[in-house]
Sequence to fold (61 residues):
Amino acid sequence: MKVHVNANCISCGLCVSLCPNVFHITEGGTAGVYSQEVAPELEAQVQEAAGSCPVSAIEAG
Ligand code: SF4
Fold:
């Protein structure tokens, strides 16, 4: 699975709270990913974060 945060991000921090091994807040203030490649054991967390993002900024698949 690959993951990407698009420009819709409003910096709410939810994805970082749900899945800190994948998401972080970048210097620009919006969320980013440490790696676009998601380890299999983290895929469920990433899917949860993607489904919870209030602006659908997380693209995973
Ligand atoms: S949950 Fe969505 S809006 Fe909130 S920080 Fe993460 S990507 Fe940005």
Observations:
- The pocket of iron/sulfur cluster is lined by residues 5, 9-15, 31, 53-55, 57-58 (CB under 6 Å).
- The helical segments are 14-18, 43-52.
- The chain has one domain: 3-60.
